[in-house]
Amino acid sequence: MVSVIDLPSYSLDECSWLSSEHDAYEENDYRIALLRELADEVYLNRGRRYSTGDLHELADKLEACNEEIIACKSLACKKCNRKFKIERVNDIVSAMKLEQEHGLEFEYGIYTILQYSRSVSAYAFIDYDVPKDKDRIRKILSRCGVIGPVVGSFELDFHEKPQRWLTHYHLLIRQTGNEDAISELKSRVQKLHPINIKKNRCARPFMEQKLSDAHEQLSYIHKLTSFEVRDYKTLFGKKRTHKHRLNKLMFCESLCWLDGLDRRTLPFQWHARAWLKQSKV
Ligand SMILES: [Zn+2]
């Protein structure tokens, strides 16, 4: 017997664990203060991509959004990203619910594709062509025969040890009907990214997870922000990683970079438009 996931009957914004709008306001406040603080340092450091004016301009934009003068819709804005995430996750859950209401017992999985061969050096992430990268992934999905729907996002995390950014995707893929395509995808990704960016670490470029808590997992895959990943060892000697805030300058540069991107740059989808749309009708 097929076991389909138990989907929540309430929306993501009703989850008590979700960071509140006030938290987003406070995070924006932190970003505004930091951008203004770093603006002077950038002025003295002429090699930088973003100017003092860019940092101040972004700080002003986030401030106007916090004061509700405008909805800035910037990818650098925690408030606007939170709103986007809630809408997106609710749409995805509704689309899956609709299938269940029609008696379709589809199973879904969460997949992470780590692109070790496409890692980026410390301040070079600004030049990374995300739309082109997404096109490459779409081509791979197509060649593997994935029929969709696939939804998720592109993400960049900075790894402290090799001082490199690791480009990756978090994707929700319908497993039912895509079983062979997903194993083909796994072997292709393993061939494309055989070597970890960290020394003496096994490459695990393709990770699969069962979809068990739709709200939590879908919320995680739509973070739309970058972190610094640091390694540590547990008391029992196990290797683990922890996510930290980026260093101040890198954080400000990543905010300016995000601000310059179109809102649709980070979210990813493949053969999912009609699927997402039907739940809105
Ligand atoms: Zn905003």
What does this structure look like?
With 281 residues, the chain is of the alpha+beta class. It has one domain (19-278). It has 8 helices and 7 strands. It has helices at 21-44, 52-66, 78-101, 130-144, 179-192, 214-220, 248-260, 273-278, and strands at 108-121, 150-159, 164-174, 206-210, 228-233, 239-244, 267-270. Strands 1, 2, 3, 4, 5, 6 and 7 form a 7-stranded mixed beta sheet that branches. A hairpin with a 4-residue loop joins strand 2 (150-159) and strand 3 (164-174). The mean pLDDT is 92. Zinc ion binds next to helix 3.
List keywords for this structure.
7 strands, seven-stranded mixed beta sheet, 42% helix, 281 residues, binds zinc ion, alpha+beta, 20% strand
Secondary structure class reads: alpha+beta
Q: Are any ligands bound, and if so which?
A: zinc ion
What is the terminal-to-terminal distance? 31 Å
Which regions are unreliable across 5 or more consecutive residues at pLDDT < 50?
A: none
Count of extended strands:
7
Shape: globular
Report the major sheet.
7 strands, mixed
Query: Can you give the helix content as a percent range?
Result: 40-55%
Whole-number mean pLDDT: 92
SSE sequence, one letter per element = HHHEHEEHEHEEHEH
How many helices in DSSP terms? Answer: 8
Percent range for β-strand residues: 15-25%
